[in-house]
Specification:
3 domains; Transferase(Phosphotransferase), domain 1; Jelly Rolls; alpha+beta; flat; Phosphorylase Kinase, domain 1; 24 strands
Length: about 550
């Protein structure tokens, strides 16, 4: 559920009064301004003049976190009216946008920032020239212009980036909502390369077809570094506008850069072209399906050299350019090594079997076996010979840890390695929440990964937060969702050390310590973990 706090001060359908700001008063929406005593504006990152909206990165001074704030401003007459002659200040238009935001408050998707609060005119601490505002999670990463500033993305990387945004648009349309992803400054690219809608309050006249065009525009921009819709929006976002033919048609991305697959050409041109044109893509669900198919086809062809597109190899590419240094164990290269290793072992076994069968033709079956070094010839050595085996019942060394948070910014992710530094006095802690889980989110956790699968006997959690409830879960991968993990056991932490038995669990490579209830009370909920210590089964 969303953290909606404010509500409209008048019933829907009635115009909200907008006090006019004296000409001498400075604008209230400046860096450092405080909205409703809670949201401090930090950096203005964009604007949508067609919606009369400003986009800000701000700080939630109560929960001490970054948020994104979309502000609807009452425009002065010299700047033109956003609502037409019948609505010169845009108050009626803003009211409709605020009401729509409230109706969409329960909608959540990983492809768009979660709506946290809606501020209506007349709310205490809201400047008089502000027609309303919406507060969403801040999407860390880069703007669309920053993402392509150093060069275009590889085609399949662009497809992987837009797919989650297309899934969000598809889900929103099923619920009767519109995202408003047709403006370049509303979308940001996360550090892991996903396009995510950051700013709320789209124009009330938008339809699902506008979202489909917006998805195509984001894909087109990631492929070509040019924004294909409004030239004014492109200029404000710091992007060049896409070139058009004398007839007004957009060139296909493959005509601008080499190596763009025909499937992505079809998505980009099909979403941005006229609705009556052949091959037009009408729905966000179709965009999502086409992008997923392109990504799946790329995964199936991972063992074959890709088409040359003029860009250097990315860190996760299986095939690399000659002379380019190999990155440190990216996921796809690791998978390729595993596949090749399995193939090599199979070849060795087949050759060994053939060798034994051929050798038996020249050996007298009545002769004694040849013994070398107390081991019969032809018998494989015990696993691990020549390498010290980990002591049974000893500590299991954790290779890496990361914060798992599926509905917000990972709490203090830069401090999570403290839980495996051997010093219980250094701690990783959550932020302070005003409500107990799952009111604001279902939980938060730490994913511990081992170098290889290990059979565990127990886990000791050192924590100063008594009453914290944790679930210990086996995970198939480091980025697995909670519903993809398997519950091993549940425990309530004491102050100090809490030892949790893991007897009977299967060997695991990844373990999720998932916090479902925080320590605290009232409006002060938080938990801290000083150390996670695993032990092997004896």
């Amino acid at each position: 559920m969303s953290e909606l706090a404010s509500r409209p001060s008048v019933p829907p359908g009635e115009l909200m009064p907008v006090p006019r700001r004296p000409e001498s008063d400075p604008p209230a929406t400046t860096a450092g301004a405080l909205l409703t005593g809670r949201y401090r504006l930090r950096t203005r990152v964009g604007s949508d003049l067609a919606a009369g909206a400003e986009f800000w990165q701000a700080e939630d001074t109560v929960l001490r976190r970054d948020v994104a704030v979309t502000i609807l401003r009452s425009l002065a007459p010299e700047h033109g009216a956003i609502g037409g002659d019948e609505d010169p200040t845009g108050s009626a238009r803003a009211e409709e946008m605020i009401v729509r935001a409230l109706r969409s408050g329960s909608f959540e998707h990983s492809g768009c920032a979660r709506l946290l609060d809606v501020l209506s005119p007349g709310a205490a601490g809201l400047p008089p020239d502000v027609l309303g505002a919406a507060v969403t999670e801040w999407v860390s990463g880069r703007s669309l212009a920053e993402a392509v500033a150093e060069g275009m993305l590889k085609p399949l990387a662009a497809a992987r980036a837009v797919a989650p945004l297309a899934a969000a648009a598809e889900a929103a349309h099923r619920h009767g909502f519109v995202l408003g992803c047709d403006h370049p400054q509303r979308v940001r690219i996360t550090p892991d390369g996903r396009a995510r809608l950051c700013f709320a309050l789209p124009r009330p006249d938008l339809t699902p077809a506008d979202d489909v065009r917006g998805l195509g525009a984001v894909l087109f921009t990631l492929l070509t570094s040019r924004w294909p819709l409004s030239g004014a929006d492109a200029a404000r976002a710091g992007l060049p506008a896409a070139d058009r033919t004398p007839g007004g048609a957009l060139e296909a991305p493959s005509a601008i850069r080499p190596g763009v697959p025909v499937e992505l050409d079809a998505v980009a041109t099909g979403t941005l072209g006229p609705q009556a044109a052949a091959g037009h893509v009408h729905t966000a669900a179709a965009v999502h399906r086409l992008l997923d198919e392109a990504v799946a086809e790329d995964d199936r062809n991972a063992l074959f050299p890709p088409a040359r597109d003029g860009l250097p190899s990315a860190p996760d590419d299986v095939w690399r350019d000659p002379g380019q240094p190999e990155p440190p164990d990216p996921v796809r290269r690791r998978r390729l090594r595993i596949a090749l290793s399995v193939l090599a072992v199979a070849v060795v076994l087949v050759l060994g079997f053939v060798g034994v069968r051929v050798g038996s033709l020249f050996v007298d079956p009545s002769s004694p076996s040849i013994v070398v070094g107390q081991q019969e010839q032809g018998v494989d050595p015990a696993p691990g010979d020549g390498e010290p085996a980990p002591p049974a019942g000893g500590p299991a060394t954790v290779a890496s840890v990361e914060v798992v948070d599926f509905v917000g910014d990972s709490d203090n992710a830069n401090r999570v390695t403290r839980v495996i530094d051997g010093d219980p006095g250094t701690e990783w802690e959550t932020v302070t929440y005003r409500q107990q889980f799952p009111a604001l989110k279902p939980g938060i956790g730490i994913m511990a990964s081992f170098a290889t699968a290990v059979q565990l006997s127990e886990l000791t959690v050192t924590s100063p937060s008594p009453g914290t409830v944790v679930e210990v879960r086996a995970a198939p991968s480091a980025d697995a969702a909670v519903d993809e993990t398997e519950l091993i056991t549940t425990a309530t932490l004491d102050a100090g050390d809490t030892t949790v038995s893991l007897d009977g669990s299967q060997p695991v490579e990844h373990v999720l310590v998932w916090i479902t209830e925080l320590s605290g009370g009232g409006s002060d909920w938080s938990s801290a973990i000083g150390e996670l210590a695993f032990r092997r089964a004896g």
